[in-house]
Structures are given as C-alpha cells and as structure tokens.
Design a protein that fits this description.
This protein has about 150 residues and is of the alpha+beta class. Helices cover about 35% and strands about 20% of the residues. The protein has one domain: CBS-domain. It contains seven helices and six strands. It binds ligand 2BA.
Amino acid sequence: MISFESKDVLNTKIMDYIIPGEKVAHVQPGNNLEHALLVLTKSGYTAIPVLDEKFKLEGLISSPMITEAILGLERIEFEKLEDMRVEEVMSKDQPHLTVNDHFRKALGLLINHPFLCVTDEEGAFQGILTRRVILKHLNYHVDQLS
Ligand code: 2BA
C-alpha cells in the first residue's frame, strides 16, 4: 500500500504549481464563436477559460461546445460561428479553486476535470492548475517511496 511519509504532499498550497494567467489562452464572453474556435485551434487545447475584460472568471469553452452549438438538423451551420457569442455557449458551472486551496481539494476535482481555474477571493483569474502538473508532483513523491 502506498503511504506518504507525511501529509505534506496533500497539504501543499496550489499556488506554486499553477500556470499563471498571462500564459493561459483565453477568450472573452463577447467574442464570437469563430474567434473562440481560432484560439482553441491555434493553442491546441480542447477547452480554455472565458474571462471578462477585467480578468474575472466567467466560464469555460471547449471545441465540442462550439460544434454542438452550430450543429443543425442536417448539417453543421458554419455561418453561425460569426453570429453566436461565447457567452451563449460557455459552461458557467465549472468548479474552481481559490488561491489558498491545497492539493487535497484539487486532486478530487481533477478526476473529472482536466484543469481547474484559480481565482482570488474576489473572483479575479490567477491561472490554472492542470491534471498534468498534479500528476507530475504526485509521481515525484511516489518515486521517493521506492
Ligand atoms: P487538453 O487540451 O485536452 O490537453 C490534454 C493534455 O494534452 C494536456 O494536459 C497536455 O498534456 C497535452 N497538450 C494538449 N495541448 C497541448 C499544447 N498546446 N502544448 C503542450 N501540451 C498539450 P494538461 O497539461 O494537464 O492540460 C489539461 C487541460 O488544461 C488541457 O486539456 C487544456 O484544456 C487546459 N490547458 C492547459 N494549458 C493551458 C494553457 N496554457 N492555456 C489554456 N488552457 C490550457
């Protein structure tokens, strides 16, 4: 059975491990879907945060959400990409972390989400914590056990 020598791993604060806001690809609620699809495609990510002009976290948008939104009965209605806005399509009910949270909370949430947005107490976006970073950190500690 795996047993960590101390609970320090799970009590680690997340802030040292986040990808800072300025390095995170994002779109704004008022952008059209064409712009969002361009950012997603160019960045290579399947989902990215939606932030307002003051960097407040508003939601998350993904390529499947966009495809679903422009899917007509018989064809994909590409012309909708220009008219529809990110705010009409984005998901608003994603869990997120705040700056003082620890790995323990993040670990449980990252089972179902590839990344979590991190905000300060006022909701201002600080960055994201990805599944990759958490797994890398845990893997390091598991390696120390052998
Ligand atoms: P996905 O885009 O589905 O990417 C899944 C995994 O594929 C990523 O896991 C990463 O290991 C790899 N990957 C995808 N695109 C990449 C790229 N352009 N450069 C390097 N590696 C890439 P994680 O690193 O754990 O990221 C989890 C999720 O976090 C990503 O899911 C994406 O939705 C989001 N993400 C990560 N970094 C981001 C950033 N700088 N800006 C916006 N979103 C980001």
